[in-house]
Design a protein that fits this description.
Order of helices and strands: HEHHEEEEEEHEEEHEE
Membrane topology: Single-pass type II membrane protein
Radius of gyration: 37 Å
Protein name: Cell division protein FtsQ
Number of helices: 5
Largest sheet: 9 strands, mixed
Family: Belongs to the FtsQ/DivIB family. FtsQ subfamily.
Function: Essential cell division protein. May link together the upstream cell division proteins, which are predominantly cytoplasmic, with the downstream cell division proteins, which are predominantly periplasmic. May control correct divisome assembly.
Helix content: 25-40%
Keywords: Cell cycle, Cell division, Cell inner membrane, Cell membrane, Membrane, Transmembrane, Transmembrane helix
Distance between the termini: 141 Å
Number of strands: 12
Strand order of the largest sheet: 6-5-4-7-8-9-10-11-12
């Protein structure tokens, strides 16, 4: 009899514990479902394009050629600009760096609806092949030449020769300036021969090699010509020694 009572007591106790665990499990599950629903609702709200649209643009940087309108037009080429949460910054940065005058773009989002765009412009070093621009690192970019605010040397050369041609101009132009001259045009042709046109109109034919020696030879000749330099059309220095001088005719 006693054993029967103990057994029944244990059964009731076990049943009570099972009910308690079941109730606790159901409560915990309800809490998880509630949290999940709140998270889903919050994320859906944040990604809704009508809730957090990126509608403000702040442009920063020392800029002379790029305007806020240029950036807006670049972004307008995207199918659409997403929300604060959904828009990929790399996509915006790629579009900004496609603007011809932009050398580098850094973009970040500011809660809740702002895009901050920091731009660095190309620094013009020269006019390249008559239709493009060369920056201070010798990189070609397609900025509007008509917008350039000062005179620059005109450099010409085959594709990918920009850094080389710019380096040669930087090396030799100070030497010409010492004589009161400037290189107005420097050309490297397809045969890799060099030609210089000075700001007084004299054309120098230098050939492919021995630039140092040939330019030094020009300086010696130029000093000896004196006032006769006004009648010089070109000087051909493509010789081992000496030079050929072309003169303007008396009529010219």
């Amino acid at each position: 009899m006693i054993n029967h009572v103990l057994t029944e007591s244990r059964r009731l106790s076990t049943s009570s514990q099972v009910k308690q665990h079941t109730a606790s499990g159901c409560f915990f599950l309800m809490v998880l479902l509630l949290i999940g629903a709140l998270l889903y609702s919050t994320i859906s709200w944040m990604w809704d394009e009508h809730r957090l649209p990126l509608s403000q643009l702040v442009l920063q940087g020392d800029l002379h050629y790029v305007s806020t309108l240029d950036v807006q037009r670049a972004f307008a080429e995207l199918d659409h600009i997403g929300t604060f949460m959904s828009q990929d910054i790399d996509v915006l940065q790629s579009r900004a760096q496609a603007i011809p005058w932009v050398a580098h773009a850094s973009i970040r989002k500011q809660w809740p609806d702002t895009i901050k765009v920091f731009l660095t412009e190309h620094q013009v070093a020269a006019i390249w092949n008559g239709s493009a621009l060369l920056n201070d690192k010798g990189k070609v970019f397609n900025g509007d030449i008509a917008a350039v605010k000062q005179e620059y040397v005109k450099l010409y050369g085959p594709d990918d020769s920009g850094p080389q041609v710019l380096a040669v101009w930087r090396q030799y132009n100070p030497q010409f300036q010492a004589l009161g001259l400037n290189i107005s045009s420097l050309l490297l042709n397809e045969r890799r021969a060099w030609q210089i046109i000075l700001d007084n109109g004299i054309r120098l034919e230098l050939g492919k090699e021995s630039l140092d020696e040939r330019i030094t030879r020009f300086f010696l000749l130029y000093k000896r010509l004196g006032k006769d330099t006004e009648r010089v059309s070109y000087i051909d220095l493509r010789y081992d020694t000496g030079a050929a001088v072309g003169w303007f005719s008396e009529q010219e």
